[in-house]
Write a structure and sequence with these properties.
The chain is built from 10 helices and 11 strands. The protein is of the alpha/beta class and 285 residues long. The protein has 2 domains: 28-112, 3-Layer(aba) Sandwich (Rossmann fold); 136-260, NAD(P)-binding Rossmann-like Domain (Rossmann fold). It binds NADPH dihydro-nicotinamide-adenine-dinucleotide phosphate, 5,10-Methenyltetrahydrofolate and magnesium ion.
Length: 285
Amino acid sequence: MSARIIDGKAVAEALRGRLAERVSALGFRPGLRVVRVGEDPASGVYVRNKDRAALKAGLDSATIQLPEATGEAELLDLVAKLNADPAVDGILVQLPLPRQIEAVKVLAAIDPAKDVDGFHAMNAGMLATGQRGLVPCTPKGVMHLLAAARIPVAGARAVVLGRSNIVGKPMAALLLAADATVTVVHSRTRDLAHECRRAEILVAAVGRAEMVKGDWIAEGATVIDVGINRLPDGRLVGDVDFAAASQHAAAITPVPGGVGPMTIACLLENTVEAAVARRGVREAG
Ligand SMILES: NC(=O)C1=CN([C@@H]2O[C@H](COP(=O)(O)OP(=O)(O)OC[C@H]3O[C@@H](n4cnc5c(N)ncnc54)[C@H](OP(=O)(O)O)[C@@H]3O)[C@@H](O)[C@H]2O)C=CC1
Ligand SMILES: Nc1nc(=O)c2c([nH]1)NC[C@@H]1CN(c3ccc(C(=O)N[C@@H](CCC(=O)O)C(=O)O)cc3)C=[N+]21
Ligand SMILES: [Mg+2]
């Protein structure tokens, strides 16, 4: 058996198209500011793709690039300015940050109403308690993909591999909110392969190239690969051995072209949601 490929690029394109229509009906351009400190290569791809997508959807989007040596106080100052700017609806500070800057302090300084990453403790707490604030883009994108591929989530056994604050934990919370039976596994889990084999829906977010092997996948499972790993030869691969897993899964996301494009589309979606909520816009339809 060979798995159906879930085309994240196509689903993201459709979502961006709907957002462009929504934006053009607003009568103003939702403002997004991405702050990048230094030159982390992984965030370089992201920032470039995001800029293109945001402008195409009609957002007022800009990237603010600061030097690697920027101090914490200086970054907090910029965040305060963006918080106070009425034209700015969404603020995203690219992670990772250089070591002289404490990321939790910066994330805590972002106005939760403009926190389009959904990383502020206020938004994380809202998600954990079943209230919907701004939801982290990558797990939100995964939920969109599952819906687009018509994968039933309610009652399904879902396993999330990874427990970071930006992917694993919010992913587990969203699956739970959608009535899946959720297991979270991580580096201290005793038998990863065994736990993964129980999954009807497996979401891999570990950051280890092709760590998930074909025989970790149950027959007929849905495999969502969040991982973005650059190999020494320059190839981009996920956390799942795609060719081997495709022999067992019923549906699987590729890397590239899976979750990555959805993350960007959801960032635009969050910016529109933040603009509508913060400005008290009433949308038709
Ligand atoms: N497609 C997209 O849009 C995005 C992709 N990514 C990608 O997703 C991946 C995960 O990102 P992120 O969550 O930030 O990563 P983190 O490094 O923050 O978290 C990785 C998680 O995986 C667990 N882990 C690491 N190694 C192992 C192992 N050998 N066995 C079991 N568990 C392990 C860690 O466990 P422990 O907690 O015990 O240390 C941790 O919970 C990366 O490849 C990243 O590039 C990230 C964001 C967006
Ligand atoms: N505050 C913050 N928020 C983030 O959401 C965040 C971050 N920091 N730091 C970096 C990671 C990584 N990330 C990606 C998103 C999309 C692609 C993406 O577009 N991928 C495409 C193209 C990849 C390529 O062509 O190289 C794909 O998978 O098809 C990649 C990586 C968001 N992140
Ligand atoms: Mg990380």
